[in-house]
Every structure is written in structure tokens, then in C-alpha cells.
Amino acid sequence: MSRAISGLRTTVAGAVEAMQSRLPASGSDEEDGSDAGDAGVPRTDGSDGPAVGARGALGAHDLASRPKVRKVGSKHGDVKGDVKTASLKARAADNARTSAMVVDQHHMLSIRRKLSEFVTQSIKNSRTSAEVYMDGASYSEKIKDCVKEQLGCDDAAVNDWLSSDIIKPTKGTAIKKKDNGKVARQTVRAETPLKAVLPHTIEALKKRALLAYFKTINVSMEKLTKRQVLQCLANNRYTDSDDGQRAICEAMVSMYAFLGALHRVEDGEIVGAGRVVRASIGFYALASCFVRYYLECVKAGTVNKPRTGTEPGWSVRWRAELIRVHGFLKKDNDVHNGLALTDGSDANRAVINTEEDNQVKIWHKRQADEEVNYPTRLNDAIEEENQREQQQQQQQQQQ
Q1: How far apart are CA 280 and CA 277, in angstroms?
Q2: Under DSSP, is residue 250 helix (H, G, I), strand (E, B) or coil?
Q3: Which superkingdom heads the taxonomic lineage of this protein's source (predicted)?
Q4: Which one, of 129, 297, 112, 154, lies nearest residue 222 by Cα?
């Protein structure tokens, strides 16, 4: 019996030693709370929660080995965080600047509509020559008045706003790509599209006046020869003749249709046969100025490209033409060849005092000097055409 008990003790002791050999060594990661049964062991200080060394608790070894967390953008210096913060600030500033330019663009569009309406109304309702075409100084003051009304600011703020940048209002070109592939908006000064309102209106009137004029005289604009041009310019036949005046009146009718002022035209199928056009001498000079400009372009052999809206010079051309037509148009308000001048009897109907007086005199004198040589140039043009026709006939005969 004693031998059996002694053998059992030896077996139990061997089993205990085998189990102890399998446990982790002291100080390892599994020593502190690796046994699931320790999860419910009470703390020695009497508080709730797992005892020191139980699973889920942090020992001294865990606190020492746990990595420290660095705050982004802190005083320790995180380069990526600082760069990201600066990029966000720059993007926010750029968005704010773009939003401001968009608001200014909306203001500009509203002001431009008001200016366009004012220019149209002033030309349409003109009773005197001075009301037909605004000089540069008056137009600049009108722009400032419209800006002041739109923004409700003083003169200093108006000048600052006109010199500020806005997003370009042209369709299709307001956005372009840089060399690096990024998208950038095209900008322009706020005053630039506003200054272009008057020239754009004049260009639209010119286009319609020329089509109506050459249709009336039954001449193709594309096939107009140098000989025909010199014949029209000689002695101002393009305007100072019955056919020329009738064609100018039809050009004015087309201009009135564009301006919405057909009430200035009395009923009738054609000018001179019941139709009467009532206009100031300045409005007549404007239509005549368009025709002379085109004839001079053909005579010079230059391409008649449409104006961009920023090219100056129409005011001086118009005033020079005003002096020219003043010399032969009737000085009364009666109907002559389908035309009734609203300021025909006014002695100062062609007097406009502006800062452009010297330029107008120079321009008018230069045109007068050229007109002296028109007969000689016309004869030369006739000889050139005759020689060209003879050469063509000889070539046809040889073929």
C-alpha cells in the first residue's frame, strides 16, 4: 500500500514538473495576464477591474514599449501636415478671390446692358447731330455714372473697381489650360468690355447699312472694282447724287430697324415713292460715313475686317463726314428725295465742340486733298481695266 502511494506521488511530481517546463519564462509578454482564468481575479487594493497582470491591463513593460503618437502640425514639426495646411489656406484664398471676380463680372454684365440700352436710345431718339455720336470724354463719364449707380459707391471706389480684374465674359475662352495642365481663368479689366459697348453698336449698324446701300444700287460688295470705287468717290457721288442719297436713306432704314425706331420712317415701299425717312443730319452722316469707309478700304486694297470693339477712330470719321454732307444737303426741314432732316434749318447743325476738333480738321483736309486727285486716279483705273480686258481677249484668241 505504501509503495503504491509513493509511486503515485512520483507520478504527480513528474506531471507538475512537465507542466512548469511548458510555461513562458519570467518577464515575457505572455506572463502578464496570459491565463484566461486571471480575468476575474480581484485587485489587491479593493477596487473593481482586473488585477495587475491580468489580460487587458497595461504593465510597466507595456507602457515602456508603446510607441509615442506625434500630433499633426504640432510644435514637434510635421512637414507633410504643414504643407497640407498651407495648401488648404492657399486654395481657400484663391476660391475667395475667384468668387469676388465672379461677383464683379455679374456687376459688369448688368452695367454693360444699361450702357447698351443707353447708346441705342441716344442714337435712336437723336434730333440733333450732337446726340448721335458721343465723344470719348462723355462716354467715359457715362460709364462712371452707370458704375456708381450699380455699386452705390463714390468716385474713388468707381475708379478702383474699373481698374480691377474680372473674369473675361467671352464665351468659350474664359477658361484655358496652363502648360502644366492646370485650369486657369482668363481675366480682364472691368472697364475694357464697358468701353467696347459703343464701338460694338457702331459696328452692328455699319454692317446693316452697307448691305442695304449696295443692295439698293445693285452692286455686289465682293465684286466691287477699283474703277467703281473711284467713280463713287469722285465728286462724292456715293452720297451727293439722287441715287446715292436714295441708297443712304435705305441704309438709314436698315439702321432704324436694328435700333427699333421704324416709327421714324413713314409708310411707303421705297424711298422717294411714298416712304420718307426723318433723321438728323448727323444720322445721315453716320450712314454715309460707313459707305465711304468701305469704299476707301476697297480703293486701298485692304481687307475690310470687322472691328474688334476696341479700335478707335469712328468719331473723327463721322465728324469729317458731317462737315462734308453739310455742304450739299438742303437747309430746311422739307422732304427732298425721301429725306426730311429734323435739324435741316438749324444754322449750327454741323457744329460740335469737343476735344477732337483738331483731329477732325486734319482728317477732313487730308480727304479733301485726296479728292483732288480722284479724276486722275479714275482715268488710270480705266486704262488698267482696258489693258486687262485686252490681255484676256488675246489669251482667249490664242487658246
Answers
A1: 10
A2: helix
A3: Eukaryota
A4: 297
